C-alpha cells in the first residue's frame, strides 16, 4: 500500500519543502510534486524545491510538470527526484514514453492521466489536457493500455470529474483502467473523507493519492492509513 | 567516523543515497574516482534503470575489478537495487543476457508476478543472523521498485550467503549478506526509518 501526497499548487499550500518534511514525519509513503503551471520561470523554482526536499525526506519523490524530453527527466532525477511524471508531452509524442523507459527503466516513469467522462469515446472516458479544460481526443482506457505497452511504470489516474468534489474517488474509472493494465495504478481525485480511500483500493488502485484534504487539515495521514488497515489492507 | 564512497557511474539518483548514508554520521563522498572508492571504509554501489545500462556504466569507468578486489580483501561493499543485481553472475532483460560482476551466484530475471513493477512498501522475512536487519521491527516495511530480482535462493544459500527474502507473488532475495558483500533489492535510502536502521547497521560494521 502506497499513499501519495500531491502538491498541485505550490503557491497556496505553503512552503513545499516544509510540508514535504511534515508529511514524511506524519507517515506519508510517497510524495508527488505536480507543477501544473510548469512555466519556464517556474522550472528553476521547481528544481530548487526538489533539491531541498530530497535533502530532507527519505521517502520516494515523484516530480511532474512540463517534462518534454529524456533530458528533462535526467535533470529532475539529478536534482533528487526518484520518479518523473509525464502527461501532455506523451500525448503529443507517445515515443517519449519508450525513450524514457529505455534510458532510465520503466519504474522511473509515472504516466499522469487526466480523465473525464465523455459519451463520444468507445469506453465512455476521454483524456484531457490543460487541467481538464481541453479534450485530447483520445479514449482514456485505450490510452492507458497504450502507455503501459510503451513502458510506463505506473499510472497516476486523476478523475477530472471527481477532482475537487470531495465526494469520493471515481470507482468505475479505477476499475476500468485496472482491467486493462498490469502496472500499478494510483487513484487521484475526489478524496474528501476517510471512508473514501478503501473503496478505491477495492476497485483496483494500488495506491491512493490526495492533496487538498491534507493541505487544509480536513484529514490526517494517520487516520486515512488506519481506515485502510481496518479494511484489511497492508499498511506501513 | 567511517568514510563512505557512493560510486558515481552515471546511474540515477545518487543524492538520495548520499543523504541517507550521511544521516548515519558517516563522511560521504560521491565520486567516480576509483582510487577513492578502493580506499574508502565502505563503498555503496547504487543503481537505477536497466541492467545492461548499469553494467555499461560500470564498465565505462572500469569499476568491476576494484569492486571485486574490495570484496576479496574483506572491505565492505553495499549494492542497492540494480547495484545489487549487477553483483550477480548475469541479468536477463527483454530476452538479452548481460554478464554481471559475478560476485554472487545466480541469474537476475523478471519476477514471476501478476503486477510488474513490484512497487511499494513490503515486509521481509529476515535471515537468521542478519547483521543489517538487526534490531529492526519484524514488520518493518521497505520501499521496493523493481521488475527483476534474484529468485534462485538455494544457490545463494549454498554459497554461504545470509538471504533475507521478500515476496511479490513469488519469493526473491531482498537482502543478501555474504562476507564483505551486502546488497539490498529495496531502496534503504527511500525506506524512511527502516532504511535508516539498515544503513546505520551497515555503517556500524565499517
Structure, described:
Chain B: It is found in: Cytoplasm. Chain B: Heterodimer of HisH and HisF. Chain B: It comes from Paractinoplanes atraurantiacus. Chain B: One of its GO terms (cellular component) is cytoplasm. Chain B: Its EC number is 4.3.2.10, 3.5.1.2. Chain A is an alpha/beta fold and 236 residues long. In chain A, helix 1 (16-26) packs parallel to helix 2 (40-56). Chain A has a single domain, classed as TIM Barrel (Alpha-Beta Barrel), CATH 3.20.20. Chain A is 39% helix and 22% strand. Chain B is α/β, with parallel strands linked by helices. Chain B has one domain (3-204): Class I glutamine amidotransferase (GATase) domain (Rossmann fold). Chain B has 7 helices and 13 strands. Chain B has helices at 14-22, 34-39, 51-60, 64-72, 82-85, 153-158, 192-204; strands at residues 3-7, 27-31, 42-45, 77-80, 88-93, 96-99, 104-110, 118-122, 142-146, 148-150, 162-168, 170-178, 181-184. In chain B, strand 5 and strand 6 form a beta hairpin. The longest helix of chain B has 13 residues, at 192-204. The termini of chain B are close together. Classes of the chains: A alpha/beta (236), B alpha/beta (206). At the A-B interface, helix 2, helix 3 and helix 5 of A face helix 1, strand 8, strand 9 and helix 7 of B.
Poorly predicted regions of chain A:
7-11
Mean pLDDT over the residues of chain A: 88
The fraction of residues in strands of chain A falls at 15-25%
Report the strand count of chain A. Answer: 10
Q: Please estimate the helix content of chain B.
A: 25-40%
Observed structural traits:
heterodimer, A: 236 residues, alpha/beta, TIM Barrel, 10 helices, 10 strands, B: 206 residues, 7-stranded mixed beta sheet, 4-stranded mixed beta sheet, Class_I_gatase-like (chain B), Imidazole glycerol phosphate synthase subunit HisH (chain B), imidazoleglycerol-phosphate synthase activity (chain B)
Compact description:
The complex is a heterodimer of chains A (236) and B (206). By secondary structure, chain A is of the alpha/beta class.
Amino acid at each position: 500500500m502506497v499513499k501519495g501526497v500531491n502538491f498541485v499548487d505550490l503557491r497556496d499550500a505553503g512552503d513545499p519543502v516544509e510540508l514535504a518534511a511534515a508529511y514524511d514525519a506524519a507517515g506519508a509513503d510517497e510524495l508527488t510534486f505536480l507543477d501544473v503551471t510548469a512555466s519556464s520561470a517556474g522550472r528553476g523554482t521547481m528544481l530548487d524545491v526538489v533539491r531541498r526536499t530530497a535533502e530532507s525526506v527519505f521517502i520516494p519523490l515523484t516530480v511532474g510538470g512540463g517534462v518534454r524530453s529524456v533530458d528533462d527527466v535526467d535533470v529532475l532525477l539529478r536534482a533528487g527526484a526518484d520518479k518523473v511524471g509525464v502527461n501532455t508531452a506523451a500525448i503529443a509524442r507517445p515515443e517519449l514514453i519508450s525513450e524514457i523507459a529505455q534510458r532510465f527503466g520503466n519504474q522511473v516513469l509515472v504516466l499522469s492521466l487526466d480523465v473525464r467522462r465523455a459519451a463520444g469515446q468507445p469506453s465512455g472516458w476521454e483524456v484531457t489536457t490543460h487541467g481538464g479544460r481541453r479534450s485530447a481526443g483520445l479514449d482514456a482506457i485505450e490510452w492507458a493500455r497504450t502507455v503501459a505497452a510503451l513502458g510506463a511504470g505506473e499510472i497516476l489516474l486523476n478523475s477530472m470529474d471527481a477532482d475537487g468534489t470531495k465526494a469520493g474517488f471515481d470507482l468505475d474509472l479505477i476499475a476500468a483502467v485496472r482491467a486493462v493494465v498490469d502496472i500499478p495504478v494510483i487513484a487521484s481525485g475526489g478524496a474528501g473523507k476517510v471512508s473514501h480511500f478503501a473503496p478505491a483500493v477495492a476497485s483496483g488502485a494500488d495506491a491512493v493519492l490526495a492533496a487538498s484534504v491534507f493541505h487544509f487539515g480536513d484529514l490526517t495521514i494517520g487516520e486515512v492509513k488506519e481506515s485502510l488497515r481496518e479494511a484489511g489492507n497492508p499498511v506501513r | 567516523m567511517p568514510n563512505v564512497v557512493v560510486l558515481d557511474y552515471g546511474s540515477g539518483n545518487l543524492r538520495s543515497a548520499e543523504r541517507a548514508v550521511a544521516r548515519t554520521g558517516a563522511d560521504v563522498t560521491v565520486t567516480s574516482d576509483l582510487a577513492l572508492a578502493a580506499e574508502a571504509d565502505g563503498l555503496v554501489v547504487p543503481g537505477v534503470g536497466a541492467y545492461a545500462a548499469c553494467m555499461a556504466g560500470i564498465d565505462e569507468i572500469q569499476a568491476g575489478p576494484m569492486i571485486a578486489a574490495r570484496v576479496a580483501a574483506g572491505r565492505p561493499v553495499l549494492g542497492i537495487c540494480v547495484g545489487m543485481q549487477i553483483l550477480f553472475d548475469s541479468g536477463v532483460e527483454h530476452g538479452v543476457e548481460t554478464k554481471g560482476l559475478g560476485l554472487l551466484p545466480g541469474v537476475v530475471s523478471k519476477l514471476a508476478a501478476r503486477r510488474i513493477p513490484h512497487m511499494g512498501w513490503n515486509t521481509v522475512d529476515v535471515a537468521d543472523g542478519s547483521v543489517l536487519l538487526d534490531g529492526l521491527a519484524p514488520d518493518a516495511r521497505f520501499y521496493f521498485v523493481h521488475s527483476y530480482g534474484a529468485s534462485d535462493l538455494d544457490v545463494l544459500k549454498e554459497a554461504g550467503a545470509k538471504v533475507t527474502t521478500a515476496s511479490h507473488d513469488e519469493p526473491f532475495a531482498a537482502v543478501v549478506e555474504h562476507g564483505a558483500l551486502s546488497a539490498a533489492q529495496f531502496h534503504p535510502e527511500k525506506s524512511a526509518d527502516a532504511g535508516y536502521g539498515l544503513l546505520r547497521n551497515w555503517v556500524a560494521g565499517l
